[in-house]
Amino acid sequence: MTAGGALIISPDALLIKLIGLPDLDILLWRGLLTALGFMLIVAFRQGRGFVNAYRRCGWTGIGVAVLFSFSTFGFVLGNQYTKGGNVLMILASAPLIAAALSRVFLHERQPRRTWVAIFLCLLGTSLIVLDDAGAGSWVGNAFALLAATSLAANFTLCRTRPGVDMSPMLTLAGLMVATVALVVSGFGERLIVPSSASWVWLVVLCLGLLPLGFTLIQRGPLYLPAADVGLLMLSEVVVGTLWVWWILGEQPAPIGLLGGALVIGTLLVKGLYERRLEMRQRSRVQAS
Question: Locate the EamA domain: which residues (predicted)?
Fold first, then answer.
């Protein structure tokens, strides 16, 4: 489910390029449209229990919404003030941060295979963005670190309420993002009217792909440690790079392809190994 969500949102960077709007405009429409998309998904899934789905999240859900909005601001503004490669490299540290936060606050110990997978994926992501990485701007790097830390803290916070689905609170996160963008823009004075082509891509991305993908990802901590959710999200970096290559012709360097293969291979091997362990455990339980 988590990996599927990451694949669904993988065209994010490509579609932002095709939309071609300034960052404040993207934040405003991204916030409003994703909030509507998340709300529609909650209504479809919960029916008459629509309101209760939000109530169950409580104050923890508000914290999740705040952290998710921070990660959105960090990602969009990080790409404005520093190189895209820097942003992706820093975002790749999210599983490491999540593992550390889970150890400190939840006392969750990660198995050795998870730590190995984290460092292999960090290496693979570094190879993918090697050509685009650089000194950049400390402001942009700080925004990227905010995104990585907020994402990791979000998944860790979800683990404090086992069995409670926090994905409905992403509606509130979208409204927070849109409100801040509206205020900073002078209540619309600095915004421009999107073209009809931009509207099409905005609707596809912000009303369709992002709400569906992030709903699946946000449900990941119900079943997986926060570090594993962060690891699976790294598949977005690989597939997103392939989207840009396929559609816009921005071919990655051979070393970038090697890095992508390392990330996907690591996630696949780890998943298959853990599946094998799960099957062995089930066999032992049935035998006893």
Answer: 17-129, 140-268
Tokens of 244: 């840009």
> Residue 194: which H helix or E strand, with range?
none
Rounded CA-CA distance 279/19 in Å is 46
* pLDDT for 13: 80
pLDDT of residue 132: 65
Domain ranges (residues) in the chain: 2-287
Residues 6 or more apart whose CB falls under 8 angstroms from that of 184 comprise 24
Element (H, E) at 199: helix 196-202
How far is it, in rounded angstroms, from Cα 75 to Cα 34?
Answer: 16
Listed residue (165, 236, 248) closest to 11, CA to CA: 236
**Residue tagged 């970038």 (tokens):** 256
User: Which stretches of the chain drop beneath a pLDDT of 70?
Assistant: 84-85, 131-136
Contacting residues for 219 by C-beta, under 8 A, at least 6 apart? 1, 2, 165, 167
Which one-letter amino acid corresponds to residue 112? Answer: R
End-to-end alpha carbon distance in the chain: 31
Length in residues, the chain: 288
Q: How far apart, in whole angstroms, are the C-alpha atoms of residue 163 and residue 272?
A: 25
Q: How many other CB atoms sit within 10 Å of the CB of residue 249?
A: 7
CA 66, CA 177: separation in Å to the nearest integer?
A: 9
Q: Give me the residue label for tokens 């939840």.
A: 106
